[in-house]
Specification:
The complex is a heterodimer. Chain A is α+β, with helices and mostly antiparallel strands. Helices cover about 55% and strands about 10% of the residues of chain A. Chain A is built from nine helices and four strands; from the N terminus they run ααααααβαββαβα. Chain A has a four-stranded antiparallel sheet, sandwiched between helices. Chain B has helices at about 10-30, 35-55, 60-75, 85-105, 115-120, 125-145, 145-160, 165-170, 175-195. Chain B starts with 8 loop residues before the first helix and ends in a 6-residue tail after the last helix. The chains are: A alpha+beta, B mainly alpha.
Chain lengths: ~210, ~200
C-alpha cells in the first residue's frame, strides 16, 4: 500500500509560499495566480497560510487615516508659497532655466550696484543735483542701495524698510535695485536690513557710510 | 479561488487602471505648475501615505512631517516624473526614502504610540472591538520588525501592491522583496503568538 506524501519542500510549494502574499492581495498575473491556485487546492498548509494572510490583510482594511488633511494641506501650501524653487521655475520656457541664469543675473545686479555707487560717490553730485527738474529736497539723498528677492512681497519690502527706518528715494533701476535713505546708515543698521525677509542685497553708499 | 479571499481581479484591475490614468493626468498638470491639480493629488494620496507612514514610522509627529516633506518633493520634482513607473509607485518611493531618512535621523527605537492610538479608539459593538484588538496586536507585531521588513509587509497586505512595484519603491530586487515578506510574516506570526493580548 502506497501512502500519498504531500511534497512540502517541492519547488512548486516553495514558489507558492513565496507568491501567497500577492495571491491574497490579488496582484499576481493570470499565469502565476492560476499556478498558485492549483497548488493551494491540493495543499492544506498553503490554504491555511493564505487564510491567515487574508486575515492579516483584513485587519488593516478598517484602519482610518488619523491625519488632518486640511491642516496638512494648509501647512504644505504655506511651504510651497514660501518656496522660491517650486512654482516660479515653471513660468519660464525651459525647466531649470532660471537656475542657469541666476548667477549671471546676480553678477549683473552686483555690477550695476557697484557702478551706481561709483557714479553717486565720484560724480559731480552738487552741480548735477540742480539740473534735474525732479531733484530731491535736501536730506533726501540716497545713502544705501538695496535689491529685494524676486519673490519678496510688498509687505516684506515695507516691513524691511520700517524695521530700519529707511525709505525708498529712487528706483527701481533696470536691475530692480532701489536707492534708499536710511536715518541711521551705520553698518549695524545695514546688517539688520540685510537680515530682513525678502532682502537679497544691501550696499551702503560710501559717502554716507564713511560718516 | 481569489474570490474566496474577497478579491475580484477584473474589478481591481479596472479600478486601478482608471486611477492610474487620472494620476498621470494630474502629475502632468502639477509639472506645469498647476497648484489646484497638486491639491487634488495631495488629497488623493494623503490618506494612503498617512496609513503607510503611520505603520512604517509609528510616530504621529513623524508621519505629518514625512508626509509633508514627501509631497513637497512631489511638487518640486514633478517634472522629473518620466512615466517609467506608476505615479503611485513614484510617490511611495519618495515617501519610503523620506521615512527611512527621518527614522535614521531620529535614531530612536520605534515607540508604541501607533498601536496605542488604535487600541484606544472608542469601543463600538463587540465585533468592532475584537477587530480593533486584532488590529492593535498586528500593529504591535509590525513595530517589532525592522523598518525595511515592516514596509514591504505594509505595502503588500495594507496597500495591495504587486511585488514588482514594491521592489521599485524600496529599490531592491524582486527576489529580495519576496524573501523579506516571507521572513517578515513568519516573524510577525511568531510575535503575534507570543503577544499576551493575542490569546482569548
Amino acid at each position: 500500500m502506497k501512502a500519498r506524501i504531500l511534497p512540502l519542500d517541492s519547488a512548486e510549494h516553495r514558489s507558492a509560499q513565496e507568491l501567497l502574499p500577492w495571491f491574497v492581495n490579488g496582484t499576481l498575473d493570470a499565469a502565476e495566480a492560476s499556478s498558485v491556485g492549483r497548488h493551494i487546492a491540493g495543499c492544506e498548509r498553503c490554504r491555511k497560510d493564505a487564510a491567515e494572510q487574508a486575515q492579516l490583510r483584513e485587519s488593516a482594511s478598517a484602519m482610518q487615516a488619523a491625519g488632518d488633511v486640511e491642516r496638512d494641506w494648509a501647512v504644505l501650501r504655506s511651504r510651497i508659497e514660501a518656496d522660491p524653487r517650486a512654482p516660479r521655475q515653471r513660468e519660464g520656457a525651459a525647466p531649470g532655466a532660471w537656475r542657469r541664469w541666476l548667477p549671471f543675473t546676480v553678477a549683473l545686479q552686483c555690477a550695476v550696484i557697484l557702478a551706481l555707487v561709483l557714479v553717486l560717490v565720484a560724480g559731480p553730485a552738487r552741480e548735477e543735483r540742480y539740473r534735474a527738474l525732479g531733484a530731491q529736497p535736501p536730506g533726501s539723498e540716497a545713502n544705501a542701495v538695496a535689491v529685494f528677492r524676486g519673490d519678496a512681497t510688498s509687505e516684506q519690502m515695507r516691513d524691511a524698510l520700517h524695521a530700519v527706518g529707511a525709505r525708498i528715494v529712487g528706483g527701481p533701476t533696470i536691475t530692480d535695485a532701489y536707492l534708499l535713505r536710511l536715518n541711521d546708515p551705520t553698518p549695524q543698521v545695514l546688517s539688520r536690513l540685510r537680515a530682513q525677509p525678502g532682502v537679497l542685497r544691501v550696499e551702503a553708499l560710501q559717502e554716507e557710510a564713511s560718516r | 479561488m481569489l474570490r474566496h479571499f474577497g478579491i475580484d481581479r477584473k474589478a481591481v484591475t479596472s479600478t486601478r487602471r482608471s486611477a492610474e490614468d487620472a494620476d498621470v493626468a494630474l502629475i502632468g498638470r502639477v509639472a506645469a505648475g498647476d497648484l489646484h491639480a497638486f491639491e487634488t493629488l495631495f488629497r488623493i494620496y494623503h490618506p494612503r501615505l498617512d496609513r503607510f507612514l503611520s505603520l512604517m514610522t509609528a510616530r504621529r509627529t513623524l508621519v505629518e512631517e514625512v508626509l509633508n516633506d514627501t509631497m513637497l518633493v512631489v511638487w518640486r520634482r514633478s517634472q522629473t516624473y518620466n512615466g517609467h513607473s506608476k505615479v503611485s509607485t513614484w510617490i511611495f518611493a519618495i515617501a519610503y526614502r523620506t521615512a527611512l531618512k527621518a527614522l535614521r535621523d531620529q535614531d530612536e527605537p520605534v515607540g508604541p504610540d501607533a498601536a496605542d492610538e488604535l487600541s484606544s479608539e472608542d469601543p463600538g459593538p463587540e465585533q468592532q472591538l475584537m477587530a480593533d484588538q486584532i488590529r492593535a496586536q498586528v500593529f504591535r507585531g509590525l513595530e517589532a520588525l525592522s523598518a525595511e521588513q515592516r514596509s514591504v509587509l505594509v505595502l503588500t497586505y495594507f496597500h495591495d501592491l504587486p511585488y514588482h512595484e514594491i521592489a521599485r519603491i524600496v529599490d531592491c530586487p524582486v527576489d529580495t522583496v519576496k524573501t523579506r515578506v516571507f521572513h517578515g510574516r513568519r516573524r510577525l506570526r511568531a510575535l503575534l503568538q507570543r503577544d499576551p493580548g493575542a490569546g482569548p
